[in-house]
Specification:
It is an enzyme of class 3 (hydrolase). The protein is an alpha/beta fold. It has 13 helices and 14 strands. It is elongated and about 60 Å long.
Length: 358
């Protein structure tokens, strides 16, 4: 049975192009197209779509207002279509918080040629959205364990925790999963490197939002930073993020090489660099996401002595990347998202020492 898609966009050209792209796929079809949320409301009742694509900035009713009402009254997979602007990226981050599964960007230059180049990406994201688990998200209080408000394990002082690193990879559903994970990180946690599949222009907004919410400092990596405890570095949308060494120090490194597994930044690239640069001093965490990016890199981390965690199926929006890592034996432990921060910190608390060894 084909995936039924409803398009909501005020641009007739975008609606036409989206319809062409979606209907060109053998496993999906457009069941309706609406110029605004008011028309969309009626079409949802008539067509019962599996996935809705929603323009971020809409007339008559703001896209965020419509999304909030939709997720409260009739939760369903929503794929946001966002403009590459500062306002567009901020609104998109808020849309993901409200329950949108993922987003695609409108093309920068020629709309027609740009959108047609995105065919595979749009189709893949719609397939992932159709399989997504749509549920209300309740975030734990920052710095408290998810059960009973117990304090999280303490890694130790900055000196002892500086030898360890936490390396995170995620894709679909990952922005909220990463936020939930980082909200529970104490200010003395080991340095954290993150590869989240996200286009250029959005990673900075993502990092700034997290920096405002978390106890730790969060930034979009500029490359060449010394990796410090209590800091998280997010791969920018235009580059792979790698872990490098400079003497006794861990450093960030950016690389604009070709996409790996169709992604730049790629989780595999980050994980492989952690296997080489940190070995058993790294802890890998693979979170919700479609595809298999990160699985082989996580296996290399394990072979180098790292201890790895994977998010379990029940708490994933899309159980793709963790499933692939688990299937090849790359994950040492599998746990619900709400339990992962305490498990990671608990492991680090019992495996930290004062000597930096690789």
């Amino acid at each position: 049975m084909k995936i039924k898609v409803l398009i909501v966009d005020d641009s007739a050209l975008i609606r036409s192009l989206m319809k062409e792209i979606i209907n060109s796929q053998p496993d999906m079809e457009v069941v309706g197209a609406a110029p605004d949320p008011l028309v969309a409301r009626d079409l949802i009742k008539q067509t019962n779509p599996d996935v809705l694509t929603l323009d971020v900035e809409m007339p008559k009713m703001d896209g965020l207002d419509f999304l909030e009402k939709l997720m409260r009254l009739r939760p369903m997979p929503v794929l946001m279509v966002s403009s590459l602007t500062e306002r567009g990226s901020d609104i998109t981050m808020r849309a993901l918080e409200l329950g949108a599964v993922d987003f695609v960007t409108k093309p920068k230059m020629s709309i027609q040629s740009g959108m047609l180049e995105y065919t595979d990406m749009i189709a893949d994201k719609i397939r992932a959205a159709a399989k997504a688990r749509i549920k209300a998200r309740v975030l734990p209080v920052a710095g408290a364990a998810s059960q009973g408000g117990r304090p999280l394990p303490q890694v130790g002082n900055t000196f002892t925790s500086s030898e360890k690193l936490i390396i995170i990879g995620a894709s679909t559903g990952g922005t909220e999963a990463i936020k939930e994970f980082l909200l529970q990180m104490p200010s003395d946690c080991p340095g954290i490197l993150i590869a989240q599949h996200m286009p250029e222009g959005f990673t900075r907004s993502f990092a700034q939002r997290l920096d405002n919410l978390c106890k730790i400092s969060v930034c979009e990596s500029a490359g060449g930073e010394r990796i410090l405890p209590g800091h998280a570095y997010i791969a920018p949308g235009h580059s792979h993020l790698l872990l490098a060494r400079s003497g006794a120090n861990y450093m960030t490194q950016l690389d604009q090489g070709p996409p790996v597994n169709r992604h730049r930044p790629s989780v595999d690239v980050l994980f492989r660099s952690a296997a080489i640069g940190a070995g058993k001093n790294a802890v890998g965490v693979i979170l919700t996401g479609m595809g298999k990016d990160g699985a082989l890199g996580m296996l290399e981390m394990k072979q180098a002595g790292a201890h790895n965690f994977a998010q379990d199926e029940a708490s994933c929006v899309v159980f793709g990347m963790p499933r692939e890592a688990i299937a090849i034996g790359a994950a040492d432990e599998v746990a619900p998202l709400m339990d992962l921060p305490a498990k990671v910190l608990g492991y680090l608390a019992t495996h930290s020492s004062r000597a930096l060894r690789v």
